[in-house]
Amino acid sequence: MKKLVTVVNFILIFLLLLLSNTGCAADTKGRIAFRSSEKREKDTYIFSMNPDGSDLVELARWDPSSMPYRNVWSADGKTLAYIDYDEGAKEAWLAVVDADGKNRRRVRDVTEMRIGSMALSPDGKTIVISADSTRVTRIETPVGNTVRVDIIKEEDMDLFTVNVQTGELRRLTDTSGGVIEKFPSYSPDGRQIAFVERIDTDTPQRGDVFVMDADGGNRRLLAHHADGWFVINPEFRWSPDGSKIAYAIYNMPEVNRMSVSDSDHHTDVLVLDVKAGLLTNLTDTDSPYVVNIEPAWSPDGRKIAFISGNVTEGFPSLVRVVDGEDTVELDQRWPAWTPDGKGLIFTNPINVFELMLIDADGKNPRTLAVVEGIPVSNPIWLGGR
């Protein structure tokens, strides 16, 4: 009996030591998506693979001018919405595809629509798009025996939804006066849409943050940004419970003046309380050249990982995981949370073909997968957007 107890104790101690050395275990379920330019000079494509690097498939060409990167996935990570360009026929289609590359299907011809941005609903059934609604007015004024004709073009972009099953288009907003509505993002439950609205067309990124019901009703202003503040990388990141939105904002005090020194510029990560409309500056940067971008919520909503660095030293490579006032610094780029929230995945900055995993406390970095011949950028563990 004593021998049996000794053996059991030995096994338990061995397992504890093993777990302490390996850190958080990687969940092998689901798929990982990433961007890559592969060997093509101009175009970037979205790929997906199993967590161990197997079953690598090319899903779609990524168009940064109209496609966000995270908000085009369904909440379960099984469906990607994208724009399918047919260069030969000179056509563009809204399309969807499964994360494993199967069931590729065109939803609606958008060749004649200028798509500004888009997002897929959490259930994968609806695509919201920002599309051109420019109004052209013809004004005829009698002048003697002739008529003077003036054409007034008023730039406008409104929000529409497209039914993934039927392709039916439905207008959500109908604004005038040069109002541009872009960068829509669904709340986790699919009931609300956040978006940016701007009027000054000379500053394409500046704008205020609005939210409305998914059917276009109950529209309200959440955050107004003063001149010199631009919503950048405007892919709103909702917290898992839908109570907050994180996004990055760019500070440029002298808008559109070439004499502005780069040292006046910096970016911050903001957290917006949706119900109260209160803004919290998570980084509160006042130092020149500092960049804070790409916030990502942990699955439990308690932490945010984001990129933070100094542009004078090259591309920012410092990541901080923030939980209240506690900060853990990870010297890695473009992190994304694992589904269980115990770790983050990232691209090895020394070997861009290697996907790595690190514990959320910044310890125990290790290889997750190596992709032959295709550089890995901006990895996402699907299902945890």
Strand arrangement across the biggest beta sheet: 3-2-1-29
Structural class estimated from helices and strands: mainly beta
Mean pLDDT: 80
Largest sheet: 4 strands, antiparallel
SS summary, helix count = 1
Strand content is: over 45%
Radius of gyration: 24 Å
> What is the number of E strands?
29
3D shape: globular
Q: How much helical structure, as a percent, in the residues?
A: under 10%
Q: If you had to describe this structure to a student in words, what would you say it looks like?
A:
- There is one protein chain.
- The protein has 385 residues and is mostly beta strands.
- 5% of the residues lie in helices and 48% in strands.
- Strands 3-2-1-29 form a 4-stranded antiparallel β-sheet, with no helix packed on it. It has a 4-stranded antiparallel β-sheet with strand order 7-8-11-12, with no helix packed on it.
- The model is unreliable at 2-22 and 255-262 (pLDDT under 50).
Name the features.
385 residues, mainly beta, 4-stranded antiparallel β-sheet, 1 helix, 48% strand
Task: Provide a concise account of the structure shown.
The protein contains one helix and 29 strands. With 385 residues, it is mainly beta. Mean pLDDT is 80; it is low at 2-22 and 255-262.
What is the topology?
Blueprint lengths: L1 H21 L9 E5 L7 E6 L7 E6 L16 E8 L4 E8 L6 E5 L5 E6 L5 E7 L2 E9 L2 E9 L2 E7 L5 E3 L8 E7 L5 E7 L9 E6 L6 E4 L5 E10 L5 E8 L14 E8 L5 E3 L8 E8 L6 E7 L7 E6 L2 E5 L2 E5 L5 E5 L6 E6 L6 E5 L6 E5 L4
Antiparallel strand pairs: 1-2, 1-29, 2-3, 4-5, 5-6, 7-8, 8-11, 9-10, 11-12, 13-14, 14-15, 15-16, 17-18, 18-19, 19-20, 21-22, 22-23, 23-24, 25-26, 26-27, 27-28
